[in-house]
Design brief:
With 374 residues, the chain is of the alpha+beta class. It has three domains: 106 residues, Orthogonal Bundle (Butyryl-Coa Dehydrogenase, subunit A, domain 1); 103 residues, Butyryl-CoA Dehydrogenase, subunit A, domain 2 (Beta Barrel), CATH 2.40.110; 150 residues, Butyryl-CoA Dehydrogenase, subunit A, domain 3, CATH 1.20.140.10. Helix 7 packs antiparallel against helix 10. The longest helix is centred in the middle third of the chain and has 38 residues. It is globular and about 80 Å long. The chain starts with 7 loop residues before the first helix and ends in a 6-residue tail after the last helix.
């Protein structure tokens, strides 16, 4: 099995040679295909796949570090990787051997298809349907936004249960199956290269073997498998954004001269105060992320609470840090060449991904008050 350190040179190489050079084009709305393919060649799409199918067999720590590193250069690519690792965790637990091997070999990109207009941020209660048709299942649904919608090779897809009690059932839907439709486009404020688009299933038929976990058991898989991965890796994305914004802001302040004062911007106490606040908030969010990973990997009693807290804490901190970046850099911050305005936009886009901060605050309050989570 690969050690935690063994993947780091590969991540750094892909970021340096492909992801960073393509970041501007990705922010322009182009899917980072070269970066995704490079991640696959380096074995990083199989980072959390088990060693028995050819993957690296890594867990939360390595995945969070990888997503964080990628996010410093391109948060859109980090989001795509986050969704892939979340889907991979489900497929590893309940999917077929062929798909698991393809992911481990870096030949297969997967993603989640949970979001629906009918359930909004309550993604665990889908309104789409599954109907038995002989030995097959028919899926009918309209998914509002799916990351890498027209680029992924498979989708971990949610529906109402087929026959059993429960909130949902999960299915592995392959790309290109008849009845699968991708529409529209994505022209958003931030995370602009993630190829998030609406999808629909119109009389889509799959064999019953495509089910991931038990019928009616989708909620349990979402909460026990998907949620920890999504929360941790979303937080890692926000931390990467914060790190990049802080570094760019500090560099700008140190290099920008105030000729009439014969000083740099960094010589001003108010500037240093803002940069200090950015650094403190970034380090606090990073430390909280590391503690959450430790809680999960050690099976600590506070792991559930940490998982609920980590995305909310990091997303809100990233919004604050990138706001300070604009204040420090002033009018120059709104020019693309300085770089901080992209981090500002990406940070805000990350805050609205379900479960949103408001929903998470409700969950956290329930846990702290000793109330049932659902």
């Amino acid at each position: 099995m690969a050690t935690l350190q063994s993947h780091r040179p590969a991540v750094e190489e892909v970021v340096r040679d492909t992801i960073e050079p393509d970041a501007a084009a990705t922010d322009g709305g182009r899917f980072p295909r070269r970066g995704v393919e490079a991640l696959g060649r380096m074995g990083l799409l199989g980072l959390v796949s088990s060693a028995e199918v050819g993957g690296m067999g890594q867990g939360f720590a390595a995945a969070a570090e990888t997503v964080e590193t990628v996010s410093r250069s391109c948060a859109s690519t980090a989001l795509i990787l986050t969704m892939h690792y979340c889907a991979t965790a489900v497929i590893e637990a309940h999917g077929d051997l062929e798909t698991r091997r393809a992911i481990a070999a870096g030949r297969h990109l997967s993603t989640l298809a949970f979001s629906e207009a009918g359930s909004r941020s309550h993604f665990w209660v889908p309104v789409s349907t599954a109907t038995a048709v002989g030995a097959d299942v028919r899926l009918d649904a309209r998914k509002s936004w799916v990351t890498a919608a027209d680029e992924a090779d498979s989708y971990v897809w949610s529906s109402r249960p087929l026959a059993e009690e429960g909130l949902s059932t999960l299915w592995l839907v392959p790309r290109g199956v008849p009845g699968l439709e991708v529409s529209g486009g994505f022209d958003g404020l931030g995370l602009r290269g993630n190829a998030s688009r609406p999808m629909a299933a119109v009389g889509l038929r799959l064999p019953m073997s495509a089910r991931l976990g038990p019928d009616g058991g989708g909620f349990d898989v979402m909460m026990a498998v998907v949620l920890p991965w999504f929360q941790v890796l979303s937080a890692a994305t926000s931390v990467g954004i914060m790190q990049a914004a802080t570094e760019r802001t500090a560099a700008y302040a140190a290099s920008t001269r105030l000729e009439h004062l014969e000083q740099t911007l960094a010589d001003q106490p108010i500037t240093r105060s803002h940069v200090a606040r950015m650094r403190i908030a970034t380090d606090q969010a990073h430390s909280f992320l590391l503690d959450t990973v430790a809680a999960l990997e050690e099976g600590r009693p506070d792991a559930q609470l940490r998982v609920l807290e980590v995305k909310a804490a990091a997303a809100e901190a990233a919004a604050s840090v990138t706001d300070l970046a604009l204040r420090v850099c002033g009018g120059s911050a709104y020019r693309r060449e300085v770089g901080v305005e992209r981090h500002f936009r990406d940070a805000r886009a990350a805050t609205v991904m379900a479960p949103t901060t408001d929903v998470l605050h409700d969950f956290i309050g329930r846990v702290v008050c000793g109330l049932p989570l659902f």
